[in-house]
Amino acid sequence: MIWSIYLSGEIHTDWREQIIEGAASLELPAEFSAPVTDHGASDDAAQAIFGDEPTAFWKDHRSAQINAIRTKTLIEQADLVVVRFGDKYKQWNAAFDAGYAAALGIPCIVLHDEALIHPLKEVDAAALAVANEPQQVVKILEYVMMQK
């Protein structure tokens, strides 16, 4: 089996690359997908397609809907979802992705620093594993994929 893993959440660090490279170094049977991680392209998706929006609300709303086509489809196709919460921004979209995966019954690994344990307690409770660093996620993937 080749596992389909969706990497959701924070876009300002290289955590995705660390997990992908770690899985590749172990030759894990995994393929990875992610949301659009270019912040500007994501925010301006509707404007790039339809032109200027009349208000900031409609720009954000239409861009979120367009981005949701990708996100919803890839989460629904995933065998596993990893959601990273960074410390600089409130990633409401990441929390939504974790909840969506949980509602679909798709296993979820949450990744965040220890400082976020309290604010993410409900998200952590819905996850099947909580990690503090990308290498812990790689070790979880190795364990669940390589056991016979």
Rg measurement, Å: 16 Å
| Span between termini | 12 Å
The geometry reads as: globular
| Biggest beta sheet summary | 5 strands, parallel
Strand arrangement in the largest pleated sheet: 2-1-3-4-5
Write structural notes for this entry.
The protein has one domain. Helices cover 51% and strands 17% of the residues. The two termini are 12 Å apart. The protein contains 7 helices and 5 strands; from the N terminus they run βαβαααβαβαβα. Helix 6 links the parallel strand 4 and strand 5. Helix 1 packs parallel to helix 7 and helix 4 runs parallel beside helix 5. It is α/β, with parallel strands linked by helices and 148 residues long.
Summary keywords:
7 helices; 51% helix; 148 residues; 17% strand; globular; single chain; alpha/beta; 5-stranded parallel β-sheet; 5 strands
